[in-house]
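[worker-b] picked up task from shared queue
[worker-b] task type: protein-ligand structure
[worker-b] ligand name resolved to flavin-adenine dinucleotide; SMILES cross-checked against name lookup, match
[worker-b] sequence length check passed
[worker-b] input payload:
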Amino acid sequence: MAAGEPEEQARFRAEVRAFLAANAEPRRESDPWAVNFHTTDEEARRHFEAVRAWQRKLFDAGLAGLTYPKEYGGRGGQPWHERIYNEEAAAYAVPRGYITSTIAMLAPTLLAHGTEEQRRHYLPRMLSGEDAWCQLFSEPGAGSDLASLACRAVRDGDEFVVDGQKVWNSGAQYSDRGMLLARTNPDAPKHEGITFLLVDMRSPGVEVRPLVQATGASGFNEVFLTGVRVPVSDVVGEIDGGWAPARTVLRHESAFIGGGGVQVNPRLVALARMFGAAGDPVVRQRVASHYIRERVLSLMGERIKAAARRGGRGGLDPSLLKLFVAESRRLSGDLAAAIAGPHALVAGEPFQRWLHAEVVGRFAISIGGGTNEVQRNNVAERVLGLPREPNPYQGRPWRETPRS
Ligand SMILES: Cc1cc2nc3c(=O)[nH]c(=O)nc-3n(C[C@H](O)[C@H](O)[C@H](O)COP(=O)(O)OP(=O)(O)OC[C@H]3O[C@@H](n4cnc5c(N)ncnc54)[C@H](O)[C@@H]3O)c2cc1C
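[worker-b] inference finished, payload out:
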């Protein structure tokens, strides 16, 4: 029990401790170099399923969706439940992965924009890991300018029929369901003719093609949709009004990516010691500066997460946090490369594997979930109130606007 902790919180802490002791392995000495980085598809799939199984265990123990309402499978708890769980889980090697991120994006979106039936059906299945979700937003011609997307959905009675292509869809090859943005009204301005659909990834006409990366694993996929039928009851929000729930997803995605922090400081220190650079004043300065960024980040993350749980925006724009994390990740990758550079090219010891992931992967967060440039535009417009980028096609139908 933490000193001075109220009894209810101490009881919950004891419950979490007992659960973790019975179900998870304590973090070991060698774990500091553990990475969420897979070199084969088989390894990636095993990890994905381990995260799903862990989510199920949490759910069965009443520890999933701690702040979500009980009627939707959550615990109906307070932000302190999450804080205490995270404090206790930090000492254990619990599986962490993609499922958690789509829960963080879609669950609050269904709470804000979903129907009661959608919440009752999908939220418990999501929180238990029974349904793993992927995000089907980006297209070859629509990334930063997401609202220009071209995947079509045409109404046919009680269903929409979807045709088009998506790309960069993380985890789609393992997922049961996808959150999809499709164009339902090409005659409306681009933001006003999009519908948000919940798609069964096993539907006829869904083809997932993994994109093999240099590492051998396939973090992303192309997803082709040909005549895929989606019931109208699986529209989130209004037909043609999908931009509102899409923005809710993107806001929570930024908050999730930012809120995770990068927590590499102990490893940078260990690396500096290992390479005899811990006494180098420049290295020390860069490590200290990184540590300060990490602390600031975790405080910013807490503030945003607390606001998101209350359903509000909380005075700190998620784009700011996402930008800060992306920069921090780049700086820590640069520093790791400066300390131990060539070792990033050797796959052998656990620290080399970590170093490789750190150096090679340091720009992923600068792109995924919206690029740094897009986040800067968001900050300029939403936070600083600067004029929007000029758009000569403002208000014109989507079909008349040029696309990449
Ligand atoms: C790790 C990772 C995971 C991802 N997972 C998913 C996923 O699960 N689902 C999904 O749908 N997508 C996913 N994506 C795709 C991601 O959302 C897009 O890559 C991203 O939005 C950028 O789009 P783009 O690649 O088409 O680049 P583009 O939009 O073509 O951008 C190219 C360059 O132009 C710059 N640029 C574009 N517009 C502007 C502007 N207005 N002002 C200034 N600069 C601009 C960009 O910043 C960038 O540098 C993922 C990407 C990554 C890296």
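[worker-b] attaching auto-annotations
[worker-b] The chain has a mean pLDDT of 90.
[worker-b] releasing lock
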